[in-house]
Amino acid sequence: MLCLLRRARLLTPSLPSSHHLSSTALTLQRAMPTRPRHPPDCDLEESYLKGSGPGGQKIENKTNSAVQLKHIPTGIVVKSQATRSRAQNRKHARDILAQRLDDLENGPESRAGIVGAVRKKRADSAAKKSRRKYKKLDEEREQQQQQQQRA
């Protein structure tokens, strides 16, 4: 994957002068893969259904705003009723289908796989930082208790 340079602006707070100084730091950032393309219309079977769930009679009995897409070559079926608009549900279903096809085709190298890996890395880093912090606090408490016992 290509690496992009990202500019981060750093402000120096609380300087004695009235002007704030800033500097720019360049950081390397991993480029995200492009969003998956929607499959061609000839590979899709599209149907409109009545929605279910909250929304009352209007959603459940009167309008066919839910969209169900079936990708004929793979047999993947996606249903979307996220909004009350048929057009928005259609776009949402196509986005989900494109993502699932990308996952099926590329596995861990798909966009969703890479995003998940980045999130997991951030969460692990935050957990590690938290463990370090509380370990340090516990060590400081133990030292204080030992000093109090000696005195």
Automatic annotation (TrEMBL):
The family assignment reads:
Belongs to the prokaryotic/mitochondrial release factor family.
Which compartments does it reside in? Mitochondrion
Domain of life of the organism encoding this protein: Eukaryota
Residues covered by the Prokaryotic-type class I peptide chain release factors domain: 41-141
Query: Where is the segment annotated Disordered?
Result: 99-151
Q: Which InterPro entries match?
A: Mito_Transl_Release_Factor, Pep_chain_release_fac_I, Pep_chain_release_fac_I_sf
Q: Does the keyword Transit peptide apply?
A: yes
User: How is this protein named in the record?
Assistant: Peptidyl-tRNA hydrolase domain
Q: One matching Pfam family, short form?
A: RF-1
Q: What's a GO cellular component annotated to this UniProt protein?
A: mitochondrion
Q: Which UniProt keywords apply?
A: Hydrolase, Mitochondrion, Transit peptide
Q: Which PANTHER family match?
A: MITOCHONDRIAL TRANSLATION RELEASE FACTOR IN RESCUE, PROBABLE PEPTIDE CHAIN RELEASE FACTOR C12ORF65
One Gene Ontology BP term is: mitochondrial translation
Compositionally biased tracts (Basic residues): 118-135
Q: Which terms does the record give in the GO molecular function aspect?
A: hydrolase activity; translation release factor activity
